[in-house]
Amino acid sequence: MAWSYGGESLVTGSKDMMLRIIDARSEHLAGQVQAHQNGRDMKALWAGDSPYLISAGFSLTRNRELGLWDSRNLEAAVMKVRLDSNTGPMFPIFDPDTGMLAVTGRGDTGMKIFEMQRGELHALANFSFGDQGRGCALLPKLANDVLANEVMRILKLTSSSVQPLSLRVPRRHAKSFEQDLFPATFAGQPALSAQDWLGGQDHRPNLMAISDPSLSVAKHHSLKGS
């Protein structure tokens, strides 16, 4: 289950293979579609501040795949992307600032990166990280090393540790702040009170500019478990 960017709707993916859009206030079912052909674990999320949804599930032949959907018309997928034949459920992560999608799964030793542009998903990169993953989470932008052009930092959970994964954009000038890589990001402050939201008000998240490299607090640690 995932919230829309403005907090007015929810999207869910379930083992009945259905992707559902739900009005968060009224609990009204706004739309639904069978997103995949296999009833194994399925995830769904919103593609940032856009009408598009992303589903991660399995095809009829048990291949892992992504589906891109337009919430305004769920009759058919905008596109499907076949990923691999791995069997673990997937953990898709979407960065609304950059429009990048990171996809890995339980038991995977690698991650795939896509970019959302003009209503399409474009493959950017694949990379491997050794230990099998059990989960992952995207860190806020203020945790990134902006002087190293680190546009995404993800924490990966393994059986014995939490490991940082870093996605960096190569640029000619090292250790310089590249403004175009870091658009405004979530400011960490509420845009509405609970009472206002329940009363029907909508508001996009409050954003802040990333312009001062001294705000970056990136440190690489591996937290070993017992």
TrEMBL record:
Family: Belongs to the WD repeat coronin family.
SUPFAM superfamilies in alphabetical order: YVTN repeat-like/Quinoprotein amine dehydrogenase
Protein name, as recorded: Coronin
InterPro entries, sorted: Coronin (IPR015505), Quino_amine_DH_bsu (IPR011044), WD40/YVTN_repeat-like_dom_sf (IPR015943)
PANTHER family noted in UniProt: CORONIN, CORONIN-7
Residues that span the membrane, as ranges: none
Domain of life: Eukaryota
Originating species: Pinguiococcus pyrenoidosus
